[in-house]
Amino acid sequence: MNEIYSRKITPSSPLKDRLEGDGAALAVGLNHDASHVSLVYPDFGANGEPRQIRQLHFLADKIESPPFSLDPKERGNFFYAEAGCVDEDNLVGFIGYLMAVARNDVELRYGVDWDDYQKLFEGDGTYIMPENAYGLTCASFLAEVFYGYSMKLFHMPTWPKDHPDDKVWRDALCKSRLEALEQRGQGRLSREQIQEIQDTTPLVRLRPNQAAAAIASSPPPSPLIRQDPDAPKKPEGWTHEQTQKLAEELMLNFSEAVDAQAKAEAKEKAEADARAKADADAKAKAKADAKAKKQAS
Asked: Phi and psi of 12, rounded to 5°?
């Protein structure tokens, strides 16, 4: 498992230097509570456009790849690790593929009925519109992205169906989306879509931390699917049990990164409070001295 960095407290790292430099690098990212997973990569630029870092992810209805910054001053924290599942020999080609995936201007359906691969992307990044396409989450979207490049990260037939924890997550998701609709009158999901998610059965969920853990690790038991057709068949992707072990290791590292961030923020606040107190004390002393001097005269 590769080291997890915090945008807030890691001003520099070999991975950050590579993302911001002139070479090729790929990171998998998690938000502050590990509920959303994404890829971070350098867009090499085209037609004279400058190179810039981008974040590729799926948000409810479409593919997004906005410019992204690892500057500690950015609002909100972000945790990231190197994507160990893509080797150096394939890295430049894979980033080019991600740039092509990001150019797809299509609407995708958010849903929790994805339980195995659909082949949504060609090897050149072109989106394929299959009939009766499953709904996607941020995690299953990335699984499909890697699959389009002939990397099958997960052996989905081993995933549990209707796991109690996944049902709790699904219920909380639907509740929060409905509340957002009632408060704002609009949202990324309609009432019909929310009800469809609520009614989905069986529920098979690839979790964000599972996706992140597999992407941050070495290639899975099955290497590229483009293997010799005459070679002995190999297991395709991490099983649920294997993935869960990777996710537990990732979350341990994630918790350590979160704790380190909290300590750094507490230290920064304490130093700021001490400076503010020193300034206040200095002003109070100056005021008292001025008053004493005035009374003495």
From this structure: -150, 150
* pLDDT confidence of residue 228: 54
Query: Are 112 and 137 in contact, with CB atoms under 8 Å apart?
Result: yes
Percent pLDDT > 70 in the chain is 91
Question: C-alpha angle with apex 246: 34 to 251, nearest 5 degrees?
Answer: 35
**Polymer length in residues for the chain:** 297
Backbone angles phi and psi of 66, in degrees to 5? -70, 160
Helix axes 138-148, 88-102, angle to 10 degrees: 120
**Most confident stretch, 37-51, 118-132, 182-196, 213-227:** 118-132
Contact criterion met (CB below 8 Å) for 40 and 80? yes
Contact between residue 97 and residue 123 where contact means Cβ atoms under 8 Å apart: yes
Residues 256-291 pLDDT 10s: 766 776 677 777 778 878 888 888 888 888 888 888
Q: What's the token pair of residue 203?
A: 């529920």
Cis peptide leading into residue 223 (ω within 30°): no
CB atoms < 10 A from the CB of 47, how many? Answer: 4
Contact by Cβ (8 Å): 9, 264: yes
**What's the CA gap between 120 and 90, in Å, rounded?**
20
Give pTM, 2 decimals.
0.82
Tokens matching residue 14: 């070999």
For 283, half-sphere exposure in the C-beta direction (CA atoms, 13 angstrom radius) is 6
